[in-house]
Amino acid sequence: MASGRFPQTAALTFIFFLSGASGLVFEIVWFRGLALSFGSATPAIAIVVAAFMAGLALGNLALGPLADRIANPLRLYQRLEVGIGVTGLLVSLLLLRGEVVLEPLIRLVAGAGALGGPLRFLLVFAVMTVPTALMGGTLPVMARALHRSGATGRVLGWLYAVNTGGAVIGSLVPDLLTVPSVGLAATASLAALGNLMAALAVRSL
Fold first, then answer.
1. pTM here?
2. Best label site of 24, 77, 92, 193, fewest CB within 10 Å?
């Protein structure tokens, strides 16, 4: 993965940048969708962050060891990116346009009194578990694949940095560019497109 394999390293950089950016774009869209549903941005942010981090941890724990047991971790990674794009978009559309499903649940939470907070978290966690768990699996699965190919720790560290950089860009783009111009649903669609492009880029590896 060093100097003689620049095309592969460039592809990995592209993949991890898109993956990190798309994940944070989805998170911003979910913030906005929950704020619309529950009427306050602060609880929405707290709930999404908690559910997001819990899902990432779950995916890391479950999918990292799975990558050790399969023959082709890159194929698993490709499927993870497709899964993130599809389920992330579905969750976004549910939060933005799923009033028929969400309104009864919101009324249930509102009438639960002191149990409203925990119930709200469980509801959001249940909705977000699949896409966030898939996100949590991307880095350990790719790390397993690169380790088998003889990649050095420097390459893995660079890819983690690129993924983080993509996340920073993904946290800025929605509010500064896409949401004012095309709206939340289209912004979620662009995030899903990023995941699908990352999945296609894995073919080059």
1. 0.89
2. 193
Q: Which of 116, 123, 119, 125 is nearest to 54 (CA)?
A: 125
CA 151, distance to chain mean position in Å, is: 25
| 96-106 core/surface letters (b: 16 or more CB in 10 A; e: else) | bebeeebeebb
H helices present in 40-183, as ranges:
41-69, 73-97, 99-110, 116-148, 153-173, 179-182
**Structure-block tokens of residue 131:** 């896409």
Q: pLDDT of 4-42, one tens digit each?
A: 455 677 888 899 999 999 999 999 999 888 887 766 667
Angstrom distance (rounded) from CA 141 to CA 132: 15
> Please, what is the angle between helix 6-38 and helix 153-173, to 10°?
40
Q: Which residue has the tokens 């050790």?
A: 68
Q: Are 118 and 40 in contact (CB under 8 A)?
A: no
| CB distance 64 to 142 below 8 Å | no
Rounded distance between C-alpha atoms, residue 37 and residue 101, angstroms? 11
Alpha-carbon torsion angle 175, 181, 183, 187, nearest 10: -70
CA–CA dist 113, 2 (Å, integer): 58
